[in-house]
Amino acid sequence: MKAIVVTDQSAGLAGMTLTERPKPSAAINDVIVEVHASGFVPTELEWPSTWTDRAGRDKTPSIPGHELAGVVASLGYGTTGLSVGQRVFGLTDWHRDGTLAEYVAVEARNLAPLPGDVDFTVGASLPISGLTAWQGLFQHGRLQSGQTVLAHGAAGAVGTMVTQLAREAGAYVIGTGRAADREKALGLGANEFVDLESDELKDVGAVDLVFDVIGGDVQERSAALIKAGGTLVSVVGPVEARPAQGLAVDFVVEADRAGLTEIVQRVRDGRLRTTIGEVVSLDEALGALNPTGRRHGKTVIRVRP
Ligand SMILES: NC(=O)c1ccc[n+]([C@@H]2O[C@H](COP(=O)([O-])OP(=O)(O)OC[C@H]3O[C@@H](n4cnc5c(N)ncnc54)[C@H](OP(=O)(O)O)[C@@H]3O)[C@@H](O)[C@H]2O)c1
Asked: What is the CATH number of the domain that holds 98?
């Protein structure tokens, strides 16, 4: 099968090549998915799981990409709940070969049915950003209606989902980002927007929940805004800042069939919008995944037309 692989950690995105790899075989509880569309997070090549297996052994050549939408091609021994020919989407295991390929082996529990009226391109854009926002807001952040959320990077992949889901849940949302992100964040439902390059974060006042996708100094300044009993949720590595009277949580998104089902239902009925930028074939993917300018929306690899 055709796949994009990485072999050299120091080469970054420029080190990705399109090559032939053996088609995966299904282990116990696995599904082999014929990939129709695949998502990729630009920071993936910095993650240790791209380079090693769970025991820390080199796993190169490694296939990146952990979001997919496609069709079940075959089932491993003992696999239940999904059937051959079914449309699915989901988040694959970080340590296994990923989805920038024609086929991928995925544990069935990592997948959810993709309704027939949701395009594969849309399905592949949802798992990481949607589940990260969902888990950060509702599981780790314990968001309640009426609370105030500071949604950093509100025009980015995770931030757009955080903004929309928090608003739907009845929160007051203050989005942040660069000046050029203002209209997008407000258009997705943010009640206010803070330009991190020219506005003062401290003028925001007290908030119940900070959703951090930036880290560093922005995380530090945001922690100081958290009310007693509030939460700083971060997805950019071990959290360093501590709210004086609140909680700090860092987490890595987990596969979750029920969460995927909640998210895709919202997309179907128009409550949640995903921002897709370029859509390219596997043959064209290398250039698109390594752009020279700023990305506008998520790049989706359309593995099958
Ligand atoms: N732990 C997890 O499970 C998990 C899951 C998903 C993502 N992540 C991580 O979360 C981060 C965000 O992911 P994403 O996919 O949402 O990325 P993204 O689409 O690039 O969104 C990030 C947004 O934040 C903005 N931004 C970043 N730094 C900024 C700054 N200093 N001032 C103003 N705006 C700033 C970006 O603007 P520019 O594009 O102009 O920089 C962009 O709009 C990444 O580091 C990713 O690895 C972690």
From this structure: 3.90.180.10
Ligand 1 pocket test, candidate residues 47, 93, 158, most atoms within 8 A of CB = 158
CA 143 to chain centroid = 19
Domain that holds residue 221: 129-250
* pTM score of the predicted model: 0.96
b/e code 79-105 from CB counts within 10 Å (16+ = b): beebeeeebbbbbbbbbbbbbbbbbbb
Q: Tell me the CA–centroid distance for residue 156 and ligand 1, in Å.
A: 6
Which residues have C-beta atoms less than 6 Å from ligand 1? 41, 43, 128, 132, 153, 155-159, 177-178, 181, 196, 213-214, 218, 235-236, 252-253, 294
Residue in 13, 45, 132, 178 to alter for ligand 1 test, most ligand atoms within 8 A of Cβ: 178
Number of domains, the chain: 2
pLDDT tens profile 27-50: 999 999 999 999 998 889 999 999
The answer on 96 and 30 residing in a single domain is yes
The secondary structure of 77-100 as a DSSP string is TT--S--TT-EEEEE--TTS--SS
pLDDT in tens, 74-114: 999 999 999 999 999 999 999 999 999 999 999 999 999 99
Q: Tell me the CA–centroid distance for residue 131 and ligand 1, in Å.
A: 15
